[in-house]
Amino acid sequence: MDRREFNRALLAAGWATALAPASTLAATAKSLTKITGDIEAVTRTGGDTTVPKAALKELQKSLRGPLLLPGNAEYESSRRVWNGMIDKRPGLIVRCTGAADVTRAVDFAREHDLLVAVRGGGHSISGKAVCDGGIMIDLSPIRWCTVDPETRTARLGGGSLLGDLDHESQRFGLATPVGTVSHTGAAGLTLGGGHGRISRSFGLTCDNVRSVDIVTADGRFLRASADENPDLYWGVRGGGGNFGVVTAFEYQLHPVGPEIYGGPILYSFDQARQVLPLIEELTATAPRSLAADLFIMAPGKRPGNFMVSVCHVGDPAEAERVLAPLRKAVKPRVDQARLMPYSALQTSADAGTKAGRLYYNKSGLLGRLDTDFLTMLLDQLETAAASPDQSAASNVVIQHLGGAVADVPTDGTAYVHRDARFDSVLMTAWEDPAYNDEHKAWLKGVFDEMEPYTIGFYSNHMVDTDKDKAKRAFRSNYERLAVLKSQYDPTNLFRLNANVKPVA
User: Fold this and answer.
1) Top-level class of domain 145-256+472-488
2) Using CA atoms, how far apart are residues 83 and 134, in angstroms rounded to an integer?
3) Within 10 Å of residue 150's Cβ, how many Cβ atoms?
4) Could you say which DSSP state residue 386 is in?
C-alpha cells in the first residue's frame, strides 16, 4: 500500500469512527422519544401552526439521528447554547448525524413552513442557533476532522469545534486561521469570515476554505468550490448561514507550530493610558507575521488589567526585535510572551469564556486606534466599577487585522471589510439574571460612544439584526448577496442569521 492509499484508508477509518457514536446516540434517543400527539409550532414568518402526529412519526422514521420533543430528557440539554442568556424552546429538534438527516430536516421545515434555526457548535452569543417554537437543526453529532498532510488540507464536520481542527492539524505541524476560543463552533465562525491569531499571516478562516458541502433551502446537496457552484462558494465565504446548512468544510492548512512565539504581556489598568498610544505605532509597523491583540479588563471588585496578546509566525528573534520598544517604554507587570505550543495559545482564552454565563456584546471594526477612542474606552470601563453585581466582568477585545486579510479584494469573497485594521468587541458577562437590564443598558450606552469611531461591523458579532444592520455588515457586497439569496433561498427559510433578504 503506497502512502496516498494509506491516507485514504485513514480517512475512511476516521469517517467510521466519527459516525459510530452518533448512530448509538440515535438508537438510544429514538427509544426515549415518544410522539403522543400533534405539536403546536411557529411558522417561518412567526405565525402559529400545528404539526400533525403522523408527520412527526414519519420524520422520526426517516432519520438516523434522534428527533427530540419537549419533555424528552435530551431536549433540555440540546436546546442550550453557550450564552446562558438564551433560553428558547424549539417545537422540535433534529439531531443530525449526516447530510441525509440535514436534508430531511430541511425538507420537513419547508413542507410545514416552520421557523428554522441551525446549530453548529452551539456558541451563538446572539442566540440565533435556537428558536422558540420552530425546528432546530442540530449539527453537533456531525463532529469529526480528517487531515491530509500531503496536500495540507483538512475536512471538518459541520458540528465541529475550532479545537477539533487545531488538535488534528497540529499533529502534523499544520494550522489554518481560526478564532481565539477553542470551544467556538467552526461553522458559524467560518461562514461569517473568521478572525484568528494567524490571520495576518494567512488570511481569514473563509479565505482558507477550499470547498463546502451544503444543503440548500430546496433540499439539494451541493458542493461549492472555485470549480463547482462558484457563485455559492463566493457567498458562503463571509455571507453567513443565508444559503443553506453546511455539513462539511475543506480547509487549506499552513506550516504552523507545534511551537510558536506567543502569549500575554500584562500591564495594570493604570498603565493602559501609557501603553495604548504605543500600540498604534507597534501595529502600524509590525510585519504581517506578528499579531498583537488587546484585552482591556475593567477595574471593579477585582484589579483591572490591560493585556497585549502576542502571536508570531516565524523566527522568534523577529518577534523579540519588534516587541523590544514596547517592553522598554513601559515595564510590563507580567511578561509571558515566549516560545510555546500553538495549541496552548489557542486554548488560552477558554477558561475566561465558560459556557452558561450571561453574555452580551456590541462590536465595531476600526481603521486605526484613535487616541480619543482609546481614552473614551478607558473612561467608560472605569464606570463599570459602580455596578453592585459582584459577578460582572466587562472588557474590550481589540483584535489586530490587516496583513494577509487585506490582500483579498473587497469583492473577492462575501466578507467585505478588508480595510479594517482592528475588530473591537465590547462584552459584559455576569451570573445573576436580575442584573440583565442593568448590564445591557450600560453596554449599550458605552457602545453609543464607541460607534462613531467604527467603520462597519463584523456579522459574526451581530446580536440585534435588521435589514439596515445587515446592509452595514455586508456593505458593497449586500446587493450581490441578495441576488444570490433569491437564487438559493427565495422564501428566506434561513433567516435566523445576519439576514440578507431575497430580491423581491
Assistant:
1) alpha beta
2) 19
3) 10
4) G
